[in-house]
Amino acid sequence: TVKRRNHGRSKKGRGHVKFIRCDNCSQACPKDKAIKRFQISKMVEAAAERDMAEASVYETYVIPRLYIKKHYCVGCAIHMKFVRVRSRTARRNRDPPPRRFNK
After folding, report:
1. What pTM did the predictor assign?
2. What is the DSSP string of 17-86?
3. Interval 68-79: pLDDT, tens
């Protein structure tokens, strides 16, 4: 019996995959098994952004965001609620979860 169809990773034909370190606990984890998420943050806080907008020559200038790719081990991803433990029947569902936009 097999618990998961992909054995918990997305290797598929590669013999070996490099290890990465979890950004939360520094545990070594294969790169294809790690849960990857982008941390999107603004480069400056709201007060500084307002000051820059008042001092700027341009009327509309969008300050770029920082996109940081984070890698988490399975234990930290469950603890931080990025992924959930699913029942045996729910594990067969392979379509991605519904997108959530936090604005």
Report:
1. 0.80
2. --EEE-TTT--EEETTTSEEEEEEEESS-HHHHHHHHHH-SSS--PPPEEEEEEEE-HHHHHHTTSS---
3. 999 999 999 999
